Amino acid sequence: MAADQKGTGAGALSGIVVADFGRVLAGPYMTMLLADLGADVIKIERPGSGDDTRAWGPPFADGEATYFLGVNRNKRSVALDLTDPRGLEAARAIVARADVLVENFRPGTMDKLGLGHEELSALHPGLVYCSVTGFGADGGAHLPGYDLLVQAMGGLMSVTGEPDGRGTKAGVALVDVITGLHAGMGVLAALRHRERTGEGQRVEVSLLGSLLSALTNQASAYVGAGVVPRAMGNRHPSIAPYEVFDAQDRPLVLAVGNDRQFRTLCGRLGLPALADDARFATNTARVAHRDELVAALSGPLAGRTADAWFEELTAAGVPCGPINDLAAAFDLADRLGLGARVPGNGDGDGAGAGQVANPIGLGATPASYRSAPPRLGEHTEALLAELGLVPGEDPLP
């Protein structure tokens, strides 16, 4: 993490209790971030199987799917059957002491269980109730909220991939991650409002809405100018040169963002006159004559290795870099001192697996890595005891 990777000091959200009914990625990713910042997150799971991602492997680490391990650290796991009156009673007891409830069931499911916003907010007026849906709680309630579906139906795949392809998804469940970030910001805003007024409120975030917001310039091109963007491979619709070129040994990315950088690039490539050519003198002109520009730059770039160009052009102020795999990317982060990973402790049951660090740097209340992702139901008995429920007699699943 950015700081205090193994720390146990009070975080910025110390004292905040989160009842986490989230599953898979968007909800759990958001609650992990809250937990990293000090919140006490109680993860409520199905007995027997738990969160679906516990089975989403390979790869596995010490018997746990790395997918699950990646978004569930710093939490306590309680296994409760919410269709059993005893399990439901225990869940309601957890909610009674919580500041925040997070859920991403299909719309209406929590209401049917007796855990809906209207019912719980009447009992706990200060509760921040966060619902994450795929396509909204009204017209899209019948649509399953899987990241791939939203990438397809929300337009991301239409602008990703090669121009003559059929659309390509991002290499990770990007929509889930973006939605988790939006949901977390909504929860923090609601907590701030409660601090001022004592009032809780409902926070609602959808995968589709989050994706459309995150499409930024592409979405703005449509709503602002009526332009429907299409896939352009590694090219940028509004900037040139801003794409992948072949160096002598491997691909190299150029991300030239202004005319000054372009002029410097031309000088380093031995093509100074190119910067004064009317076809390339401005970014708008370069975009209009992109194919001719690429043809002019490709030959010189192919004459040296990617590392050689990276060193020379970066030193000259021209943004460029090789296409790294994740091993090389983490190695880069290590060399830059970012502290992008937390080493495992070798205790087994997933605890020995390394973790990707929280990137938020807070000087006074840094994020911390306090506990490994929990085994299914690991904290059930202890938590029920905290609630005054006697295991074996009171509402266990």
Automatic annotation (TrEMBL):
<dbReference type="InterPro" id="IPR003673">
    <property type="entry name" value="CoA-Trfase_fam_III"/>
</dbReference>
<protein>
    <submittedName>
        <fullName>CoA transferase</fullName>
        <ecNumber>2.8.3.-</ecNumber>
    </submittedName>
</protein>
<dbReference type="Pfam" id="PF02515">
    <property type="entry name" value="CoA_transf_3"/>
</dbReference>
<dbReference type="InterPro" id="IPR023606">
    <property type="entry name" value="CoA-Trfase_III_dom_1_sf"/>
</dbReference>
<dbReference type="GO" id="GO:0016740">
    <property type="term" value="F:transferase activity"/>
</dbReference>
<dbReference type="InterPro" id="IPR044855">
    <property type="entry name" value="CoA-Trfase_III_dom3_sf"/>
</dbReference>
<dbReference type="InterPro" id="IPR050483">
    <property type="entry name" value="CoA-transferase_III_domain"/>
</dbReference>
<keyword id="KW-0808">Transferase</keyword>
